């Protein structure tokens, strides 16, 4: 099967995807523990396999030691360069794209891949990847800055997108408006008046401003998240996740208002 997609820039850094990885362990851990084949695909691992190696290490420690991570890349040279880092059966590398190389994973992590595609191609890529998931599987697709201190991702399944997560290193956060620069491709061009994601970020910014506190950014973020929930927005989880700099909302809260 010919890989679907195009070669991306492939840049990455160690620990760049740690926020997404920890969320996967939290949100998808039960599905992986229950799976007969606990397979995770790291789609588009880039010019270096370091983030695939880290994903395997984190999930093996936090979820189950026999988890299998398959790193996929369209560029055969990147696959060949990653081979010395393979540790079968737990960590393997293959050539593949949105079709997932014929695999049926419980989780797909597609980080900093679709941001390099036109927005019009995102929905089709989501459908292709989610159609290849194992029953009950999840696609985690998003982006982050170069050091992984600001990250966002969509969780989707065969029925479509379910949630959007914002995740930031609170010690470095100047204002939630910064997050807009790292929204997933499906939403980054929607951060304009009249769109749901613009409304959410504006409300988060206002709640952050109102929650100015002498106790530091963690307490301020938790207060802002709580204020959004109290105002009726579909903010998920609770203070335990919020203290990590996370905020997850139901997809309806950010879904594009117009096509």
Short description:
This is Methylase. By secondary structure, this protein is α/β, with parallel strands linked by helices. The protein has eight helices and eight strands, in the order H-E-H-E-H-E-E-H-E-E-E-H-H-H-H-E.
For the sheet with most strands, the description reads: 8 strands, mixed
Tally of DSSP β-strands: 8
Which fold does the CATH topology of the largest domain refer to? Rossmann fold
Second-tier CATH architecture of the largest domain: 3-Layer(aba) Sandwich
CATH superfamily of the largest domain: Vaccinia Virus protein VP39
Choose one word for the global shape: globular
Number of helices: 8
Number of domains: 2
> On the 0-100 scale, what is the average pLDDT?
95
- Determine the structural class based on helices, strands and strand pairing: alpha/beta
Radius of gyration: 18 Å
Instruction: Work out the helicity level.
Output: 25-40%
> Proportion of β residues?
15-25%
Write the H/E string, N to C.
Answer: HEHEHEEHEEEHHHHE
CATH class of the largest domain: Alpha Beta
As residue ranges, the low-confidence spans are none
- Alpha carbon gap, first and last residue: 32 Å
- How are the strands ordered across the major sheet? 3-2-1-4-5-6-7-8
């Amino acid at each position: 099967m010919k890989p679907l997609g195009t070669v991306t820039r492939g840049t990455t850094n160690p620990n760049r995807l740690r926020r997404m990885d920890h969320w996967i362990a939290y949100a998808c851990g039960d599905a992986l523990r229950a799976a007969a084949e606990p397979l995770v695909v790291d789609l588009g691992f880039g010019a270096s396999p370091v983030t695939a190696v880290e994903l395997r290490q984190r999930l093996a420690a936090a979820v189950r030691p026999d988890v299998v991570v398959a790193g996929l890349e369209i560029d055969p040279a990147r696959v060949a360069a990653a081979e010395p880092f393979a540790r079968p059966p737990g960590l393997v590398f293959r050539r593949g794209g949105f079709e997932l190389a014929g695999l049926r994973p419980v989780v797909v992590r597609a980080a900093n891949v679709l941001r390099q595609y036109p927005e019009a191609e995102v929905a089709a890529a989501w459908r292709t990847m989610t159609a290849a998931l194992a029953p009950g599987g999840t696609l985690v697709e998003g982006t982050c800055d170069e050091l992984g201190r600001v990250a966002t991702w969509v969780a989707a399944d065969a029925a479509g997108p379910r949630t959007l997560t914002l995740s930031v290193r609170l010690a470095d956060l100047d204002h939630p408006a910064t997050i807009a620069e790292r929204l997933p491709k499906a939403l980054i061009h929607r951060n304009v008046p009249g769109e749901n994601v613009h409304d959410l970020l504006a409300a988060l910014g206002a709640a952050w401003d109102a929650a100015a506190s002498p106790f530091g950014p963690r307490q301020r973020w938790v207060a802002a998240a709580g204020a959004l929930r109290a105002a009726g927005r579909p903010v998920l989880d609770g203070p335990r996740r919020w203290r990590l700099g996370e905020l997850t909302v139901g997809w309806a809260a950010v879904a594009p208002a117009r096509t």
